[in-house]
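Ticket reopened. Same input as before:
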Amino acid sequence: MNLVKKPKVLVAMSGGVDSSVAAALLVEQGYDVIGATMQVWDYSQCEVDEGQGTCCSSIDVDDARSVADRLKIPFYVLNCESHFREQVINPFIESYLQGQTPLPCSNCNTFLKFDHLIRKMHELECDFLATGHYAQISKDESGHHLIASEDLWKDQTYFLFTLKAELLSKLIFPVGHLKKPEVRRLAEKFALTNARKKDSTGICFVGSNSYKDFLKKEIPIEVQKQKTGWIKRFPNGDKMIQHEGIHLFTIGQSRALGMTHHEKLYVIKIDPTDNTVWVGAESDLYSSELEVQDCYHLQNWQENEVVDVKIRSTHAGARAQLIKQPSGWKMKFLEPQRAITPGQAAVIYRNQELLGGGWIL
Amino acid sequence: MLDPSPVNTPFYYFDFNATTPLAGEVLALVPDALAHYGNPSSIHSASRFAKTVLRETRQRLAELIGCSPLEIIFTSGGSESNNAIIKSVFFENFPEKNHFLCSSVEHPSVMKTFEWLSEQGVHVEKIPVGRNGFLDLQELEKKITDRTALVSIMAANNETGTLFPIRRIVELAHAKGSLVHTDAVQMLGKRKFSVQDWDVDYASFSAHKFYAPKGLGFIYSKKGKPFQPLIHGGGQERGRRGGTENTLSLFYFNEVLKSRMPQIEEKSEQMKTLRNYFESSVLKNISDVSITALESLRLPNTSSLVIKGVDGETLLMALDLKGFAVSTGAACSSGNPEPSPALIAMGLSKFEAQNSLRISIGWQTTQSEVDALVFELKSVVARLRSFLNKELPL
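Engineering reply: fixed in the latest deploy. New output:
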């Protein structure tokens, strides 16, 4: 008889393939596993094709439950609606109203998965929290390190830059060392019902409509009216057309500007002080530096060190020098970067290790 | 001790108000009953078994609740019964009488039906219930008018166990010519009562709260009072509820009634003693606990606790992992508990409602099970409280 107490893991199960396989792997590895789904949004308002690529539909909860049944592990649904509204949805809306482009998945990680669920982990006497993130944790004499996934295409470390260093020793990412096709093969091997389910893409609570429809529905008309202004041509400042609100624009956007023009124009800057949306040529989108505030440090970096910086989740990363500022850091890219967007994060890597990051001003 | 869970053994069940386990003494009879497939509406002899089951169950129920067999209408359960009665009164009376009254702590199958009625132009008002469990009878008396079609007030609250003074409510309502319905789903098997003593016009019941299967319930509809069917069909239940009867559940229910009806008073006392023992044991062992509606007359099996500083949702999970099934309020199909609207309506704060835990015991609950629960509750509450107001990483 094995008298050693099995380590206990709380695994966040979205109903998707990755977290399902994560749970199955943990069971296979001999952990005592408890599954939990965070219900973050009232599905009845969510116009999504169920199970077709978001992490918040009711079918997804059913999928998670059926995987938990298959694995014979306890499973609970956590009501996180008000938490999610406060920490993710409201900042998401506020960010757009300030002319920025928010990163809700990062907030969800910061405030729900790696705060609320960490609390639940302790409360339920678990030793670890596991998720289906494509990210890896390595350990050496200097401590724990957050490393990009083996599957660089799926790597999700960008969304994890706010993680607290003390938490790394409590986390397990069971699929982080795998590539997606292997994860699907494992799902088939474990006979999980959702093995062939589509990958989740986009923002879970926005559903199949555009984020603009979501904002129009969520923001009171009066508030939206206060955000109307002019689209102006960069650099001369010619007024081109009036727009319906700065929250409906994002840097780099070239379609749905509400006008026709003989050259292709891009949103290059949004000024919340006078609600001006500046448009210009594609070349105007490029710039060589950015500044971040509210920096998060998983590891230290040197002043003037040259590192890899990702400025959005789909960005391949670019070399940049880190220059200390009175508050925050300036990042000087060796080559100009397209569409540096306030509200997104600039995340710092040394080789494949995530060092930290901050919010782009 | 039960073992309904694939995950946790042993398993202790303290959620009898949500549903009850099937009476064990009937299980052995089921295989033979399954062989009787006849439709009770048929004329040929294959229908005899089902006809007998229907007749016997109806007779026993009439005896149990104190009415005539003709006043019983079988349905699919408590929710259908509530819907059928309320909508029947609406169709009978609207628009002449367009005023409906209920308490602020009714079951969702009553509340949501009234919400729907409001959308049809009916005026619905809720009579407040205090945190001590008392219904405001003066307010009720003031609100009833000659335009009031129906007063619908539950006999016993599912969350706190509070018993409402149905007899008095009926006197007030009948004096103004209003009909009275009571949702009596929580009553069966917990306490002796009689619809005749209550003098109500309609009452709703459910079989699975009394050790019988789900999918079966019944309505008491007083002779001479109007009743329009919710489900039209082949003339079953004297045209008051269409659809082939749930004969297997009826068979089970009939056998449960046969074996358990004579024991109700004794079991009621037994549960009351055990519930009181549980409450005094909790108060002795765990600090900062209060019992909601303690001052009111209550069902003998129900205890609604507010455990300060402990989130009910987390407490429920932690206890479940230890093999104890409890509830944070009404059972919810999504498995996603919101703070109970009934407790909030009684004046508990959102925090108090979130810190609430419902324990409901049954006929087979033993003192050693209760001891085990209090022991585990004490340790889980202490652990959860130790994390209070602490910053991560804890």
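Residues 232 and 242 of chain B are 5 Å apart (CA to CA). The mean pLDDT of chain B is 94. Please confirm and we'll close it.
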